[in-house]
Amino acid sequence: MSDEPQITEPVCISPVPPEKTLYLAKWSSRFWAWLIDIILITLFLNIVHGLLEPIWVLPFYWDIPHWDPFALGFQTIFFFLYWTIMEGFRGQSIGKMVMNLKVVNRDGTKIHYGKAAIESLGKTFVPILVLDCLIGWLGMPNTKLRVFNRISNTIVIKTDYKEPSGIQYVKEKE
Prior knowledge:
Blueprint lengths: L26 H26 L16 H22 L3 H5 L2 E5 L7 H12 L1 H14 L7 H6 L1 E5 L16
Antiparallel strand pairs: 1-2
């Protein structure tokens, strides 16, 4: 053995972070968020329809007998882009914001645009959405996952609206 003092490197042991608890969103809350998005985007598309009517005749989204495949494709792509951009940017569409829901990775971290696009595919096309949900309910019971959630490795969670810390709000009497 040598008489040289041994130099040991300090060991930094980081504390184990507390376990995260993610509350999966109810199917009913997810449905209402989807419906809010459908209504708002349909209203927006109707405004666009009114503005473009002299130039380009777009059928109303609910006017099934007069659907033009090109116009239907335009509207479907618009829904897909809306959900992909909103959920890729902040994990929430307007409907999810209203219902306090958020799309996240399975570990609770923020999703990126690629995962948002995959997750949005299932809810953009209504016939696929029906199959997506039925397979989720029947094939993966008690998981609260649609097939496209499973494919994209995402979940929809309930979020809490919290006031910023250190701020006190005072309301005047009316």
